[in-house]
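Field: COMPLEX_INPUT
Field: COMPONENT_COUNT = two
Field: RESIDUE_TOTAL = 675
Field: MODE = joint
Values follow.
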Amino acid sequence: MIGMRTLFDKIWDNHVVAREEDETLLYVDRCLIHEGSRHTFDTLHERGLSIAHPDKVFAFSDHYIPTDPRARAGGVAGIADPEIRNMVELLIRNTDAYGIARFGWGDDRQGILHVAGPELGLSLPGIVLLGADSHTSTHGAFGNLSFGIGASETTHVVATQTIWQRRPGTLRITIEGPLGFGVTAKDVILAVIARIGIGGAIGHAIEYAGSTVTRMSMNERMTICNMSIEAGAKAGMIAPDDTTYEFLANRAFAPKDRAWDDALRFWRTLPSDPQASFGKEVAIDAACVVPMVTWGTNPEQALPITSRVPDPGAEEDLDRRAEYGKALSYMGLTPGMPLADIAVDRVFIGSCTNSRIEDMRAAAAVARRGRAVVPAWVVPGSQSVKRQAEAEGLDRIFTDAGFEWRAAGCSLCTALNGDQLRPGERCASTSNRNFQGRQGPLGRTHLMSPAMAAAAALRGRLTDVRALGRSG
Amino acid sequence: MEPFATLSGIAVPLEEANLDTNQLCPTRFNKVPKAARFAQILLHDRRFNADGSEKPEYILNQEPYRRAVIAVAGRNFGVGSSRETAVFGLIGFGIRCVIAPSFGDIFFGNALRNGLLPVRLPGATVAELMRQLIGQRGARLGIDLPNQTVTGPDGTIHRFEIAPLSKRRLLRGLDEIAHTREYAGAIRRFEDDAKKSFPWLYS
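Field: COMPLEX_OUTPUT
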């Protein structure tokens, strides 16, 4: 209907600086960078460019920082690998040189940019927030337009405070109904990606809607929006509501006092108009979602834990048959075997998808009921999550159950800081990508929720967390 | 950025679908400075064994594909992370154009900004090009950006779409930042207005 606009439309329209042909110059309110942003600074140095608004750029130490608490105690100079140490030092030097706020080593606000950023109140409704990392879609959980950009685009953004974009299409994914016992936001987003595919949302901004989503906490919403990129989406977003405002109130970079009231008035106008139309619509029945695990080498290759490893020979589509065959060969799996029979060598609970306090609580609720039989790491997403978990005694629950409690960072999700799988090792992981080699060369990744990963640690194999029963 | 107008040369068929950025540039190479080793880094773990020796069966390690300047690939090429090193690898190897049915959005934008032309063609067209390239080893493709066409080994001409502004930038090797600087006045006006309309964001 004419005049009826979606959340995405409203944010986009508010940020148009200029148009040329079919591209739009969009204003960027905030830009997040991290240790991996070296190529951006290299270009700034080479070309002698300055940063338009250093106060709109925020840097996080996360991708390369060690998560081993002993290494953290040793300081930056103690990082053994000179290339990794260089990346940590480069961020310090570059942010100092350009006057950019850094949440880095030794700062109690340090953490993964998509965990620590929202904690700081940087992710506000209605803004355009870009990040030098594909999982920047996470921040859309606050009702803004957030997406990941490459090094050249980041250079352009910090030099001009703008970005050229073609307007993406809109896709609404409506999820209705209560989630069953043992089913989490991670299972919902894995089910969505399995349904629409890793290319299913290419060229589209997703809005997640429906009663399942509106009942979710901010942490759960961030898990959902985080993996939008795994369906190929430009962005993922959720309309702001009281849950959003409660989370943001009194955060360091959120507006205060009179400005808060002004902001709130504006934010309440953002949700999609009731009659607004979307380019595409997908509906998901929450009652049909069960605990999910991936069996293959991309996030769409996911199935309910109660299923069996697919048989490529049963696939009629020849391309898919070849794809499945290659995935199984890399993963070392036999067609038809129950997913719950897959033994794992390692467990990783962490990453920008699942390292927030509720994830720690969910994993601890399972961990307290047994003992890890394989090496299991718990890596909180930020120092703030770490402190909160420790205040609640979760670290003790983990360590008493034989899990390893580490310092905040990306760790084994990106495998950049030295935390990585050995060739052939199989990991139950709460991260976001099961691509070949993602957690280390020839490493094998199965994605799942924190509770499912904790259950895998106790059993040494992929496990339906529901089989452990309700916690007593 | 090096301008791109027309290109004719050997096209390598990369049959695999979903070649994500972890395959194009394994994460551990993201810390390598631009320029240096990127010819070796492209699809590194497909091309090399753990000891650094080549895997002779991988197509990019075979003649004449070491001299490929175009790649024809399966759907969802370059999905995954924002790493621009995936593009550096292709360019370092000598590839200036990738043809596929679909691309990861971030990869697509990164490619355009580095003078690598990403061409979207329908799945059936890509499959046919792939069939011809496999049947006729070392066959050449022609890319004509001004006319937005790909000429197949059999001489068939396929038209492709590209955003006009992106096309102009590629043709002239235009620097995007210099271009945006022409809008400095508009950006300043936007900021002045935003401070009035959204004071809470500037308080």
